């Protein structure tokens, strides 16, 4: 698989986020990458990295359960382990073009992370 392969790009994203390697993360995000999720939104690659840096503050582990690939789209089903809440089953849908992530959509139940 080449570095342009969507599955490889998605694996790099999760590995870099878990290792807090934000330089690698930025390198696989398109400049105009967008993010939408229950805790926020971002409209360019820099803002996406800033959001991932914020989540990394409470990130304990990412346990991937399954990866679905459909052409340029990759859906990763994983358990998001945070230091402040029980693991959250999470779906992350990425659209990848020319080896770069252009769109990220995430869904999970954020109540344990946002409750007082």
UniProtKB/TrEMBL annotation:
Which residues does the UniProt record annotate as the domain SnoaL-like?
11-103
Q: Name one Pfam family in it.
A: SnoaL_2
Report the protein name in the record.
Nuclear transport factor 2 family protein
Organism whose genome encodes this protein: Pseudonocardia charpentierae
